[in-house]
Amino acid sequence: MEELAIYGGTPIIQPGEVKNWPPVDKTDEELIIKALHVPQQSCSVYTKQLEEEFCEFNGNKFAYFTNCGGSALQMCIAGCGIGAGDQVIVTAYTWPSSASCIIHNMAVPVFVDIDPETFLIDPNKIEAAITPRTKAILVVHLHGLCCDMDPIWALAKKYNLKIIEDACQAHNAFYNGRKAGTLGDCAAFSFNQNKCLTAGEGGLFVTNDEEIFMRGRTLTDFSDMQPTKDTDEFPAYAFGHKFCNNEITAAYALAQLHKFPGYYKQLIANATTLDATLKKANIKGLKLPYEPANCKHNWYNYNLRVDFDAIGKGGLSNDEKSRFRHAICAALRAEGMGCVVWQHCILPEMTIFRSKNAYGKGYPWAVPGADDGVSYDLANFPEAIKYCYSHIAIVQILRAPNDTAMAAKVAQCIEKVFTNLDKIDADKILK
User: Fold this and answer.
1) Omega into 382 within 30° of 0, i.e. cis?
2) What is the CB-side half-sphere exposure of residue 272 using CA atoms within 13 A?
3) Are 50 and 253 within 8 A, CB to CB?
């Protein structure tokens, strides 16, 4: 192999070769211009059309277009009737909003470790976390792979729990032939720029349960636009937010939804090419993502892992392993391949959860009984911690309009760097 680009060698992928995500064309421009002239710029023509077409696309009965996926998650929590002093089980490794949505409704997140192969919540560890306070299991279909839902459904039925899906990264991901967003009582999607279906920003709260839908909507429009049963006035009688989105963003999302099948087909082809090439190469020190037979990944992220034992670095401390991984990531980027360390620490390690003081004076954990059986001891989450210091996420370079030729170049970048791990000097690279 030639010299690594980070040390002055020639990058495999040259500047300008990688095409931007998402592709924007006249379809987007025409709908956005039309939306500019809609008299009502919120919750109007294009919002309604987007909600209806997404329901038809995904198999949901009800949808509400929000300003972001985090807002949709808060609506899920409220829609399931979860409130002060309740507990919700969630994975220890995810984006913070997957658990902060629980706190926003004055409930307490209870973390569970991940499966070491899928990086998702380990169904075998959920039951031990259930208490009389538990009201729901919030599953996160992280990186575009659905959780193992059969055992989770069994637990939900056994303990009369709701299932909430964080499907923000899981557009068109499947479990046993069913789409993410139809696998629980309600779900949240995101349209953030990073997502496989994007409008720059935005989200959707979806469900097939009308009661959950109406209860979730009580968080929107500041909760002051709902008449009481015995008056036509609009008193502010509940806490709420302003979660709705606008017509311009709705039109952009609608245009992208129309083009999504083509984008998705290309993404799957690119990820399949990369995966097959790397498996054939069988590179020492490199662990590839795992796709269970009953799942269909949407490859929102393609995640590499560093096998420290295989390269003789198993004795390093976690901090040293993380630093070496960061150096590898920097070397990959120098080859022209976009990649990131997606999450630097697990959720129970983050201040907002670990301090147990979100609202001050210890709330919501200080609600009598709310903290019963809840432990954020990091020793409880060894697999999540291990994943934090070993993963490298490939996020957008496999997206359309990039094609399988680009995926092949990504494979070359990975092979070049990982076959030269003995030359990776973290002190030199990260100085």
Assistant:
1) no
2) 9
3) yes
DSSP 114: B
335-353 pLDDT, tens digit each: 999 999 999 999 999 999 9
**Dihedral angle sign, alpha carbons of residues 399, 281, 330, 289:** positive
Distance of CA 338 to the CA centre of its chain: 18
CA angle (270, 122, 299) in 5-degree steps = 10
Find the DSSP H helices in 59-93: 69-79
User: Would you say 63 and 111 are in contact if contact means Cβ atoms under 8 Å apart?
Assistant: no
Half-sphere exposure of 194 (CA within 13 A, CB side): 19
- Beta bridge partner(s), residue 110: 89
* Residue 237 φ then ψ, to 5°: -110, 5
Structure tokens at 19: 């095409």
Name 255's Cβ contacts closer than 8 Å, sequence gap at least 6. Answer: 27, 28, 30, 31, 32
pLDDT digits (tens, 9 = 90+) for 5-38: 999 999 999 999 999 999 999 999 999 999 999 9
d(CA 287, CA 306): 6
pLDDT (tens digit per residue) in 101-139: 999 999 999 999 999 999 999 999 999 999 999 999 999
Instruction: Answer for the pair 184, 206: CB distance below 8 angstroms, yes or no.
Output: no
- DSSP, collapsed to helix, strand or coil, labels residue 239 as coil
3-state secondary structure of 361: coil
User: CA torsion, points 356, 360, 364, 366, in degrees to nearest 10?
Assistant: 80
Within 8 A by CB and 6+ apart from 263, the residues are: 22, 23, 196, 197, 399, 400
Among candidate residues 303, 329, 312, 299, the one with its CA nearest the CA of residue 394: 303
Burial code (b: 16+ CB inside 10 Å, e: under 16) for 183-198 equals bbbbbbbbbbebbbbb
Give me 198's structure tokens.
């994007």
The pair of structure tokens assigned to 319 is 């901090």
Q: Is 307 exposed, middle or buried (0-12, 13-18, 19+ CB in 10 A)?
A: middle
The upper half-sphere exposure of residue 410, i.e. CA atoms within 13 Å in the direction of its Cβ, equals: 30
Assigned CATH class of 26-257: alpha beta
Q: Tokens 């003789």, residue?
A: 312
Q: Which residues pair with 162 in a beta bridge?
A: 136
Instruction: Report, in angstroms and rounded to the nearest whole number, the Rg of the chain calculated over CA atoms.
Output: 22
